[in-house]
Amino acid sequence: MRLKLPDLFYPWAAPILGAALRHWKARMPDSSGQPHKAGNGEDSIYWDKSKNRFIGAVSLGYTPAGKRHRPKVSGKTKTEVRLKLRELKKELDAGVKSSATYTVEQAVSDWLKHGLKGRDAASVLTYRSLANNHVVADLGKAKLRDLEPDAVDHWLDEKSMVLATSSLQMVLSILRRSITHAQRRGKVSRNVAELVETPEGRAGRPSKSLTLVQAKAALSAMPGSWIQAYLALSLLVGIRTEEVRPLTWNHVKLDVPDGTVPHIEVWRSVRRQGETKTRKSRRTLAMPQQLVVVLRALREAQRVQRRLLGLAWSDEDFVFGTDSGQQRTAEAVRRAFRALLKEAGFEDSRAWTPRELRTSFVSVLSDHGIPIEVIARVAGHSNTQVTEQVYRKQIRPVITQGAEAMDVIFPGTEEPGE
Questions:
Q1: Same domain, 379 and 232
Q2: Catalytic site includes residue 154
């Protein structure tokens, strides 16, 4: 005879009785007389009083050492634990062994250590600074497996109040590449940083250029000094700052045979392995007459200075090197450049940087009516369709348009004694 529970008793008693029945079945011996245990891949969820959380585990048999292999997750509710178990199984199926304790800081540290091999030392320093000051400082303690796209979005929104868009792109790139590095090593299954977009950051420092009056004043300041020659080369030829500092005399052709114009071979930079920014940046540029005069004077003064110091002079020396022949640092150039502008009468010389000599070069030529296509070609922009290729120890056809225009814009300079 089947026992029927009263209708008033059944609604609340049935769940309790059902749970008790399932527990009783789990404890019943199997055909071998042993209590039932979860099979491979079976889930178990239980309450851990010491942690005050639900614990979920997947039974995967035994390790080679004979220990039970039971990856675990935890959560405040059973529903949360079931969702985490589901994600854990997906990772296991994909062969990922993500760690519940592996943090964003560890991921970034591993990428900085192993993911930047062969990079220029200055680039590594920049990446490390951005990583430590923004990524690790804000997200470092977060468990990588638990990091959500919403958290990354919120972090980027906060950073957009203090960083320019370009810096935001760099810090997000660091996070993405760090997580990708962790993915390759099975530390995490997905890259949440790939699921977000870079917001618009603060407006960056606006680029500016010298007016024609300012340019003439700067060219007249500190005559005979290396920084005046540096400014003249940057302003009248328009090469990049990283191309000026490593320039050596054997790439400055001041004494040339008839039929050839004085020119500069822009073939090196301070970048990794001495390469220019792009392959198309390697170019040979004619020099305006004013620059030829300035550089000849600098070369002679440098020879005299080397002789006084008891040092040999070589055409492999840096054009703008120190007295002992070392390459000048970017900071040394910046200080000297601002000192020159101060002598030239600039009210706020600290508001200018050597990089703006290149923008000034472009602006002066553009104001003079030179077509933008010609300016881009002389400047060595990567999107210019340049037909010639540059080969070391081979002078390619010299680009003369920029020098010819500068001779018209800044006329009247003669060789000493002429």
A1: yes
A2: no
